[in-house]
Amino acid sequence: MINLKDFTLDQIKDLLDRLGEPPYRAIQLARWLFQRGCLSWDEMSDLPKDLRARLKEFTHLQGLTIVQKRVSHRGDTIKYLFGLADGQAVESVFMRHLYGRSACISTQVGCRMGCRFCASTIGGLIRNLSPGEMYDQVLAMQSDVGERISHVVLMGSGEPLDNFDHTMVFLEHLTAPYGLHIGYRHITLSTCGVVPGILKLARRRLPLTLAVSLHAPNDELRNRLVPINRRHPLEELIPACQEYTKLTGRRITFEYALLSGVNDSSRCALQLTRLVRGLLCHINLIPANPVTGRDFSRTPPARVHRFKKILEKAGLSVTVRRELGSDIDAACGQLRRRVIALNG
User: Fold this and answer.
1) Catalytic option among 21, 91, 159, 255
2) Is the pTM of this model over 0.85?
3) Could you tell me which CATH class the domain 65-343 is placed in?
4) E strands, 2-154, in order
């Protein structure tokens, strides 16, 4: 059975054309799928009954099932574990902010990037998510909380640029008038440094925010923490980031998870200032979430403050990420891994 949310709008038009339907039917159908999240053919009142009957024969409207749901004690963060049709599960996070409602979604089941402090990469990559499976995460959270999602972050499990084509189809629907119509400036895509993907994305000139998981200011340390650095070292990554800002005019965010005694020294801070000097960028410092099975601990607040001050003194734009959902395993991969362990 086909999930129509995996199709581009042009592919939906081609399908309906083969069924003898006029082009405007594609927009009608797309609104039911991507805007209203319809899960019943009977509700599609502006589509002919015979068309609905034919589509029902070889397509499905199946969404995601909530396997587990955890709400933070402050009520501002909800962590979901969604069940997929093949029995796999994927994580998503809903967050309430002063500026709106944000959905953090996954792009893969598992991850093959091997970042040393991340829970989602433990166990490796299972498979890519389809565009529809990405989109259904947003729809399912929006439906469950009854609040409109205004921002989307591709920062859950998986590497979006390792699933490039499906991610682009997802973004096409997410931003479209027939979909949730979320502006690109309200979308953040996070990568651990897949240089060919960064350059490919840059050429599309999408006005989204690119977040690069940096986490180390030199190759020796980054090789340990972010293994893809061995394939695409900093001497490739930083020029790719420069090309991205040149083509898009958009500032890059560098994510830097502070790990106690590993990458949080004053020396590392000074190296970081030299590495990104002159680049249109923002530094987001992240007090690292503790992960079972990973031998790291978070940097104490005083050292976080010292690190931040060194960067600011060099003229860099810096923030420390506000902590959300640590009491509900809200970091990438934690809840899925915990459930797998319990059921294993």
Assistant:
1) 91
2) yes
3) alpha beta
4) 2-3, 59-60, 65-71, 77-83, 89-97, 100-105, 108-110, 125-128, 151-154
